[in-house]
Design a protein that fits this description.
Elements (H helix, E strand, L loop, with lengths): L3 E5 L3 H19 L7 E5 L2 H9 L3 H17 L4 E4 L8 H6 L5 E2 L1 H11 L4 E5 L2 H5 L4 H5 L4 E3 L3 H13 L8 H16 L5 E4 L5 H4 L8 E3 H13 L2
Helix pairs in contact: 1-11, 5-11
Length: about 230
């Protein structure tokens, strides 16, 4: 089995999900009590999100590279970043290390192609929704990616940073998130919704929406499990 280097902490809830689902997912696939080796380097979502909001690519790259250098010393076989916003500089970071990195965005593109989706609504941090890094790989494959209204984008971004990243989700907040997602179906005519923030499963994990979701976290985790077992 390959040893995984996981860059986590961005945020804590997602890191817990990655760790548990990868460990137990590997054991389930093997059908015996064997757990993979994982080294986690935890960063702060409260540093990462401002980098994304201001499109400070250089600052974000240096911050993530600090974690990569630690994982290099831990002799990891590959690295995964448990954060959608951090993928804003994925290519820059990947060029600076000899260790392979598994892109969350690219595995989501592959899943969308497999399911023959043509038009997707992207939900995530404000930085993710306004930047091109998530949209361009889909558009290269002929898949259109749209975002909510500016007002909804600001609302989503604020509640991710000030509630979800604190491990909090109120009833009113959850209802509003569901309303925004369902508007994608009724107003924008999308085929599916990309949960483009690793904290969004806190909101949508147990909800049945009007249209399918591409859960970036779950898709990434499954691909990490497959990579560990290669």
């Amino acid at each position: 089995m390959k040893k995984l280097g996981l860059i986590g902490g961005v945020g804590p809830e997602a890191t817990l999900q990655y760790y548990k689902e990868i460990e137990y997912g590997v054991m389930k696939k093997l059908g015996k009590p064997v757990l993979p080796e994982i080294t986690i380097e935890s960063l702060s979502c409260f540093k990462m999100i401002p980098f994304g909001a201001t499109q400070d690519y250089e600052g974000m790259t240096e911050y993530i590279l600090g974690a990569v250098r630690t994982l290099e010393k831990a002799n990891c076989d590959f690295i995964a970043l448990a954060c959608c916003t951090g993928h804003m500089v994925f290519d820059r970071v990947a060029r600076e290390t000899a260790i392979p990195m598994l892109s969350l965005v690219q595995v989501c593109v592959s899943e969308a192609k497999k399911k023959k989706f043509n038009k997707l609504l992207l939900l995530g941090t404000e930085g993710t929704m306004k930047d091109a890094y998530f949209k361009e790989p889909f558009e290269k494959e002929g898949i259109q990616v749209v975002t909510p209204s500016e007002e909804d984008c600001k609302w989503i971004g604020w509640h991710i940073e000030n509630e979800l990243e604190h491990g909090v989700i109120t009833k009113d907040t959850k209802e509003k998130f569901i309303e925004i997602a369902n508007k994608g179906y009724s107003d924008l005519g999308v085929d599916a919704i990309i949960l483009g923030c690793t904290e969004l499963p806190m909101v949508y994990g147990d909800v049945e929406l009007k249209i399918p979701t591409l859960d970036a976290t779950k898709i990434h985790i499954q691909n990490i499990i497959d990579e560990i077992l290669i």
